[in-house]
Amino acid sequence: MRSKVVCNCRLGSKCRTGVFISVPLRSTFCVGTSYILAVKVSYIVAVIMVDYKVQGSFAILEVNNPPVNALSHAVRSGLNDGIEKASRDRNVKAVIVCGKGATFPAGADIREFSKPKKEPWLPEIGHKMEKCEKPVIAAIHGTCLGGGLEIALFCHYRIALKTARVGFPEVQLGLLPGAAGTQRLPRVAGLQVAMDMISSGRHVLATEAKKYGIIDELCLKAVKASVDFPYEKGLEMETEFFKQLLGSGQSKAQQYAFFAERTIARWEMPNGNYRTAVAKPVKSTAVIGAGTMGSGIVVCLLSAGIPVYLMEQNEKFLNNGLKMIKSIMEGSVKLGKVSPEVGRKAATLLKPTMNYNDLKDVDLIPVLVKTCRGFLANRMHGPFGTEGTFLVEEGALPSQVDRVMEDFGLPIGPFKVRDLSGVDIAYKIKQEVAKLLGIKTTLQTRFMNGERYCALNDRLFHLGRLGRKTGKGYYKYEKAGGKIATEDSDVTDIIEKHCKELGIQRRQISSQEIVERMMYSCINEGFKILEDGIAVRPEDIDVCYLYGFSFPRYLGGPMFYANQIGLQRVYERICYYHENFPYSPHWVPSRLLRKLAAKSVPMNEWMAYATGSKL
Ligand SMILES: CCCCCCCCCCCCC[C@H](O)CC(=O)SCCNC(=O)CCNC(=O)[C@H](O)C(C)(C)COP(=O)(O)OP(=O)(O)OC[C@H]1O[C@@H](n2cnc3c(N)ncnc32)[C@H](O)[C@@H]1OP(=O)(O)O
């Protein structure tokens, strides 16, 4: 006589599933519940992530791997077993593949990319589905992405909810679809649609996707193979390209960026955290100051459909700000960043004023903090800007520095940025510091408060070269307010005159030195920021750079970039520059970096050394 089995699923003794898995010393679970059998003893006994059910003459393979049903090894094994079982079962006439909960599988399990690879592979499972003599139907809802879409493309039929989204976002991870997507999508949707979907990834603007040169090229080659070669050969080529990309630093950085964005959302503060925080409705706002930053904030608020007062004391500045906002909003509509409707509505939501009384009932006034050292982004970017100017003083030209940094991956070089934000802004910030220190600078000043000082920017300011707005700054422009930067021999003359007056011997400066001095100086500051507890993890800094400075995603962020270079190397170069430039405090090596470099600490353990005890 069989003893009665009590199942540990939600139904307990009422469970009538009849197929059980025993977990030694612990429990018994039925197959087909929504439970994932992961036993928290020293080993995992069984993991079921595809529920197999037969309803009438349909076998249902329901992927059950919350939250996004990623195609982990356990899911792949479940799908593989499921399709074999359904093929054998005489009562089954058709097979449905679907996802439980929020979505159809949203792709391969990205976390597994950095682990030892385990069969069965997706293409193998897909081919089993395709060869199955019974119709296999993908029932799609939610986000059917990457490997999920590839599975769907292997099925004989695809049905989807109207609200479902499909796509190949691999490009955002520095990859291409690796389970026949590049071969099957063109056959289903045509070459043009396939190329567009694969190279844009749908989640990125096409303009950004263009930056992923190598991926574009491999995507193109793989998709082209779908027309030039038989399916098997095309598949072989796709696998080869996928492996190449998976091993690339670019893909690793993009995978890191994906998880970093999610990690930083789990913030903790002394008074609460991301779970306990409650959003307050914001119905009206005000921004004080119609300069570049204020106008930028207004644009963000208007794009989110929030009414905003723009407050300025000076009418001319107010009108300039309004013009700038109008032009940015129009540009955003043109680029498809905001819808034409939002663009039209923006005009009604924006209320210019010169009267503080208008602001008395608004819910929110963003505060622009004016501190010289800054908190995170500005503090790290300080050395970056300073080193740029020093490089020019020593022998580089602004256009050379910009070109090198743009080649490195920045969307716009530091001197073009300075022309954009205004040479006068940089000048006034320096003057405020000098005033605080009780120092009066001249064009001959080389040290301020014991630190190296470069007065080149001051020279441009005094010559009225304030940047784009005056039609000339570090570059010349087609007109005041123009956007086309052209090298200007007058700037070279100004730099040479400056060096001659101060007795500075100019020298050839290599691209490597430019990248190192620009990047390592701000990375060093980044480690000091971690040391000071201003950022709680390197991901905070990296995401700040990805969004705040459009740092190239394929480098992950400055801290990830440092990790990829190797902390030992970065530390050595910082020490070298510290020796050569002892009057620049940003080259004093971070203690945290020294410790991490000496012990080769992996990035996910850095913060254990930042808390003081190990420092
Ligand atoms: C060397 C030998 C090699 C041999 C190779 C030969 C065989 C080749 C086989 C290759 C197979 C390739 C298959 C395929 O082509 C490649 C891929 O599929 S890559 C993955 C593509 N998919 C994606 O990039 C989707 C990423 N996810 C999202 O965009 C979003 O998460 C979402 C699905 C739109 C949902 O968004 P939200 O609702 O906002 O939820 P979150 O984003 O917050 O996510 C919730 C939670 O889930 C985690 N997560 C999401 N997606 C994945 C994933 N694909 N893998 C792992 N984890 C994922 C996310 O991190 C969140 O968790 P948290 O980080 O908060 O803990």
CATH hierarchy, class of one domain: Alpha Beta
List low-confidence stretches.
1-5, 15-45, 204-215
| Structural class label | alpha/beta
| N-C termini distance | 66 Å
* CATH topology-level name of one domain: 2-enoyl-CoA Hydratase, Chain A, domain 1
Mean pLDDT: 87
Give the assembly state of these chains.
Answer: single chain
Choose one word for the global shape.
Answer: globular
The number of strands is 16
Cα-atom Rg, whole angstroms? 29 Å
Bound molecules: ligand LNIPZVSO
Tell me the helix content. 40-55%
Strand content: 5-15%
How would you describe the overall organization of this protein?
- Helices cover 46% and strands 10% of the residues.
- By secondary structure, it is α/β, with parallel strands linked by helices.
- Among the domains are: 1-40, no CATH class; 49-247, Alpha-Beta Complex (2-enoyl-CoA Hydratase, Chain A, domain 1), CATH 3.90.226.10; 285-359, NAD(P)-binding Rossmann-like Domain (Rossmann fold, 3-Layer(aba) Sandwich); 396-502, N-(1-d-carboxylethyl)-l-norvaline Dehydrogenase, domain 2.
- Helix 9 (249-264) crosses helix 20, helix 11 packs antiparallel against helix 12 and helix 14 (398-408) crosses helix 19.
- Mean pLDDT is 87; it is low at 1-5, 15-45 and 204-215.
- It binds ligand LNIPZVSO.
- The site of ligand LNIPZVSO has 30 residues, from strand 7, helix 3, helix 8 and helix 9.
- Ligand LNIPZVSO binds at residues 67-68, 70, 106-111, 117, 121-122, 143, 145-147, 150, 169-170, 173, 175, 177-179, 181, 239, 242-243, 259, 262.
